## 1
Amino acid sequence: MALLTLANSRHPLADTATQRATLAALPLARSFEDAAASAGHDPLRTSAIQILQINVGKRCNQACHHCHVDAGPDRTEVMTPEVADACLRFLESSDIPTVDITGGAPELHPLFRDIVRRARAAGRHVMDRCNLTITRLPNYADLPEFLAEYRVEVIASLPSFSERQTNAQRGDGVFADSIAALRRFNELGYGTDGSGLLLHLVTNPVGAFLPGAQAALEADWKRELQRRFGVRFNRLYTITNMPISRFLQFLSDSGNLQAYMDRLVASFNPAAVEGLMCRTTLSVGWDGRLYDCDFNQMLDLGTANGAPQTIFDATPESLASRRIVIGPHCFGCTAGAGSSCGGATTT
Amino acid sequence: MDTYYHPKDLARFAEMGEEAPELWRKFLEWYNAVFREGALTEREKALIALGVAHAVQCPYCIDAYTTTCLEKGSTPEQMTEAVHVAAAIRGGASLVHGVQMRSHVDKLSM
């Protein structure tokens, strides 16, 4: 049975202002602003946009315990055709090389395939953040073939090669469906070197601890997934859980919040600031509002400091070298080896 | 409640260097070198440390290396097996001393 989302269970943390206040109230050893400045980024600014990340909505067939989107089957927020069209027009007017489609489960959006086709027709690389189990639903069984046809890079969530850990984070039965989905992607050539069909896995820690070294884990994962299930993939991305939405709820309810934030702050890596994804990403919400990253989006921290606020007002020039909106949660992306939607940001 | 062990005391570990800074520096240098990747991976070394932590029953080490094992990518199943290895060696070590008992019985008995 799906977990009720914060929004629909009327949890206090469903209110993003409450989330921001909860984080702001924590006594931390330093502010992120100070930390970024110590790494030579005072203030933190964007460089050229490399990725247009389109969040098409909060609907998802899963309701994972760590979800920073608070996505789930009971969410109704989805991108309108007008906003999707504006995103694509913005893309076509720019030289942004990559489109990253996320959600929720982005494939649930009725325009998902149209967005993929149009972005590919514009010659852009497309990434789909796929929860894997979506491909096991009857209406989406042909999704892997569609993604293969359009050479879409699949970035799939799988927190562990252990069934118990995966199901603990993502729900009962998710592990078995995920393995079945991975096998289908493999049958189509995904995950095979030289096929051009990229299948990357994303692992978030199953609890209040940091991810391990990406390269070492990737070797373990490749060995274990091949040995146990005959599954192969290209790269493993380790992503630090962000203290936002349902992971914030978990941290708070389990009494781990202060210790986790202290750990993030103590693990600040100055070398990770340069590669922060917010510096090269423009994130668009389901309603067309603009953000420096998907995490800011879920905290309702829109672009600011004179930058356009919606995709309807955006031009690549008006978003160049904008000052990034930051907060305590940003320590999640600079802890240890750094973290981003593309995994660790340092070696 | 007052107890001999306090979880917060782990963070005070460095106080052991206050009266003997040179010894502390040497210990840390050696300790950090031990856990660096070598013929064994950092993940494998953390699993060994977890097993030893249970064998010596150090609550600080158990907390610390449980976290480290998870962060190095070990699963709870692998960690549980590591503890079983430590427990088996402890149990076996007790049992094998039974031979000493038997030898002494033989020596004292008619």
## 2
Amino acid sequence: MKKVLIVDDSAFMRMLLKEKLSNIRQVSILEAANGKQAIEIIKKQKPDLVLLDIILPDINGEIVLSNIRKAGIKSKVIFVTAVGQKPVIERCRKFDISGYILKPFDDTKITELIKNTFNMP
Amino acid sequence: MVQKLEEVHKDFLKEIASIGAGNTSTLLSKLTGKEVTTTISTFEMVSPKNISTIVSASKRLVVVQYASIGGELGGTILLVFPREKALSLLDLLRKREPGTTEWLSAEDQDLLKRVSRSLVVCYLNAIQGFLNARLQPSELRIFSTFGETITDLIDLTLKKRTKRVFYLNTKLSIKPNIGGEFFFLLDESLSSFLIEKAAKMLAR
């Protein structure tokens, strides 16, 4: 069973992503509504994949990513965000991410990317 | 018919505004070559008579891009720049030294109009894509005003239609001193449409 953490301040977006993940078998879902909560869950639960938003109410997704990488945690990370600015994407890519999906996203594209990340057929 | 919104629907509305603003920040970043920060979007239900006070809260001269929206999602969108921030944005767009632009020349107004029109269109396109809904903005209008003209227009547009509006606000900023705000105002009568839309998206 793969553990996936969804980090988004929007409860609606978390529900939407959960719905998309329900099409993928053998996935259990964790949720965080802000950056600090996300770091705490990642350190304790070591999820296989983190779906991470950039704009969060406390610390942004980039800081969450740098924080967990500094802690030596190698969970795969896919950004799911409306922020598509080149400098932001370039900074995130330096931390070894598995994808960067822009909102509004295509349902099929996000499911495919998650499956590819897990090497699932 | 007006239906009461649950927390998840308010959250859905905030997400709509965040997606619009996030995509707009990408475009503004491309246009200026600078990184653009956006805030978390806020949601409130307010009386139309309070909107003009909120938009022109500072009573400072503002530059506003305005459009009323038809189609499935009727409402009003405003992109507001306090005057001094609009002047700083013009310095950046025209690659001038900061502080050079002191007043809005005809050429500057035209540039600001074109840039803000692109930003509003980008915001609405992103929302259309998210909702898979039809949005038809009216011709965009720019105002450079102490607030009265634009607020009169908002009052006129909104009071005709609804007792309360869904008020969504997101701020964009470029360090050190450039910033603007999106105000997205939706008629309360859209509650059923929004509730249905949110449910459909979750069931897809």
